[in-house]
Design a protein that fits this description.
The complex is a heterodimer of chains A (277) and B (289).
Chain A lengths: L1 H30 L3 H4 L14 H8 L8 H32 L3 H12 L7 H10 L6 H25 L4 H8 L4 H12 L1 H17 L2 H5 L8 H7 L8 H29 L9
Helix pairs in contact in A: 1-13, 3-13, 4-7, 4-10, 4-12, 5-7, 7-10, 8-9, 10-13, 12-13
Chain B lengths: L2 H31 L1 E2 L9 E2 L3 H8 L1 H34 L4 H8 L1 H4 L2 H11 L6 H8 L13 H26 L4 H9 L4 H29 L3 H6 L11 H11 L3 H28 L5
Antiparallel strand pairs in B: 1-2
The chains are: A mainly alpha (277), B mainly alpha (289).
């Protein structure tokens, strides 16, 4: 009876993993598939011929597509800088809230409410403000925006880590004559590293994946990879191969950061769950 | 320097940013929702009172977008919760390799929504997509998924279920691990059957987790933009212009800043009501994340 149950469970999981990965498989398959085969009938579900043409077209550009690299570069800059800013501001804010009750309960509720403020509610005012302060279609504009949008989540994540950190070491340092800033930078910050890494992964992924604001408040001079992708779709030519190749390239940096940071976490997390993250 | 000053210095930058880019614009949206914006760029906005809200209540496209969003909401969130629960039960049962399975399952949630839209657009392609290929193997005719109803709706809901069900399952799995084994053991000794245990022990323990997952999914669906933007482009006609998409049409295609702000504020009110419920649940349990 019990064994039968776990077989059923394993079956459910196998099906779920297959369903979760099939779209990824299809993107990879299409990205490396010659044009003729993409349109063959009946549809081929398994790979047969292999080509790098699609990747080459989006990497170097072609008649129908711009080179992808500058867009990836823009995304790296925007997601990278805003991740740095968000984690720095987030850890400072969470530390002050967690250790010194800075701002009190009202402040923490205000931040939590920001977390649930639907970002799209801000689009019209932001559009007008961005125009007014020449932030429209600039790196600064998007970086400030992503930092603000992700900060509430960063603060709440970090707050959990700050609260789980015993304060004895900082208190000892304060008694020994360290300043509050000294205790924060020299004692607390190194101990909070695993929490900072987790927060940074989330913030980076959200910024990297963001499309809506990148499309509506920028997208001309400053165009991210998520804005590049829909541009490949045209009514005249059906560039499935190129679209798949570009999508694949767009997923890699985010996945790489998550993976690298995850390895970094394993040593730091004492929960024994590092492998599972 | 006192602890108080130190705390203020530390929270000052974040506070400034929230005021400038968060709360400030929100207040401006409030102002904009009561005004109309003339076509000339430099002209001052004109007072319109509740006019924008009245216009919305008579705008068939707005009402339609709310209706379609409601439909997607009910279908997608129900499927996410039911399937997520089944998945969580399966995950809970299997110990070996659970970490690996969870990280594979979470890949869809980590992928950019726009890429999710692209992937499902390819899968549902009437001529080159594998969905119709599978149907053909089963002897069923090709379906023009993204350009007919209810095909387009099915495509959107499928993409949402794909992207978020594992995420829901992980939340519910967290809930399942809070059930003390002794309780389940006691139930077994008392002769409780599987159905009985599920109904009177497992589900009551999972209630708060279901609520949290459900609320997060509702928020995600109400603000939904990328998937219908790419997958169906709002079509066929404007059958799948969800509320998130209509807001942008109003603002940027029709240049109706007042109307778009009014609609945005309705979002804020509805989602705040949901968020308040969430905060109650979360703070009631003394959790922080």
């Amino acid at each position: 009876m019990k064994a039968k149950g776990s077989w059923a469970a394993a079956g459910v999981l196998a099906f779920a993993v297959a369903f979760a990965l099939f779209p990824v498989y299809w993107i990879v398959l299409t990205a490396f598939r010659p044009r003729g085969e993409i349109f063959s009938h009946p549809v081929k579900l398994l790979p047969s011929e292999f080509t790098l043409d699609n990747l080459r077209y989006v990497w170097f550009g072609s008649e129908t597509s711009q080179p992808v690299l500058p867009f990836l570069g823009t995304s790296v800059i925007i997601a990278g800088v805003s991740t740095l800013l968000t984690t720095a501001l987030g850890v400072a804010c969470a530390y002050a809230m967690g250790r010194h009750r800075a701002g009190g309960r009202a402040f923490s509720m205000w931040i939590l409410s920001q977390r649930f403020l639907p970002a799209i509610a801000l689009i019209v005012p932001l559009f007008i403000l961005f125009r007014k302060f020449s932030l429209f279609d600039t790196y600064t504009g998007l970086i400030l925006l992503y930092t603000t949008l992700n900060l509430p989540m960063a603060v709440w994540l970090m707050l959990g880590f700050v609260r789980s950190l015993p304060g004895d070491l900082e208190e000892a340092a304060l008694i020994d004559g360290a300043s509050y800033f000294g205790a924060f930078f020299r004692i607390a910050l190194p101990l909070l590293r695993p929490g900072i890494a987790v927060t940074a992964i989330f913030v980076f992924l959200f910024s990297w994946n963001e499309f809506l604001f990148a499309y509506q408040l920028a997208g001309d001079e400053v165009a991210t990879i998520t804005v590049y992708l829909p541009r490949l779709r045209s009514a005249i030519a059906e560039l499935y191969g190129e679209i798949a190749a570009a999508s694949l390239l767009s997923v890699i940096p985010g996945a790489a950061v998550a993976w690298v940071m995850q390895r970094y976490l394993v040593g730091g997390l004492t929960l024994g769950g590092g492998r599972e993250l | 320097m006192t602890a108080k000053t130190f705390g203020r210095v530390m929270i000052a930058p974040a506070t400034a940013l929230f005021l400038a880019v968060g709360t400030g614009p929100l207040l401006y949206a409030l102002y904009a929702s009561a005004h109309s914006f003339p076509a000339e760029a430099d002209a001052a906005p004109e007072w319109k009172g509740a006019g924008n809200f009245v216009d919305l209540s008579r705008d068939p496209q707005f009402l339609k977008s709310v209706g379609v969003t409601g439909m997607v909401l009910v279908l997608a969130v129900t499927a996410q919760l039911v399937l997520g629960f089944a998945l969580a039960m399966a995950l809970h049962r299997v110990r070996r390799g659970r970490g690996l399975v969870v990280s594979l399952l979470l890949i869809p949630s980590a992928i950019a929504p726009i890429v999710a839209g692209i992937a499902w657009w390819m899968l549902f392609n009437a001529r080159t997509g594998p969905v119709n290929a599978f149907l053909e193997m089963a002897g069923l005719g090709p379906v023009e998924w993204t350009v007919t109803m209810p095909g387009a709706l099915v495509a959107i809901v499928t993409a949402l279920v794909w992207q978020w069900t594992p995420f829901v399952a992980v939340i519910l799995l967290g809930g399942l691990t809070t059930i003390p084994p002794s309780v389940l053991e006691a139930a077994r000794l008392d002769g409780a059957g599987r159905w009985h245990t599920l109904r009177h022990i497992t589900l009551p323990y999972l209630r708060p987790f279901f609520l949290v997952a459900g609320l997060l999914m509702i928020i995600e669906t109400v603000r939904l933009y990328e998937v219908p933007f790419y997958l169906t482009q709002g079509g066929p006609g404007n059958e799948t212009v969800l509320s998130g998409i209509y807001l942008f049409k109003l603002a940027f295609n029709f240049r109706n800043f007042g109307g778009a702000s009014a609609m945005a504020l309705l979002f804020v009110v509805v989602l705040s009501a949901i968020a308040t419920l969430y905060v109650r649940l979360v703070s009631g349990k003394g959790r922080t994340v």
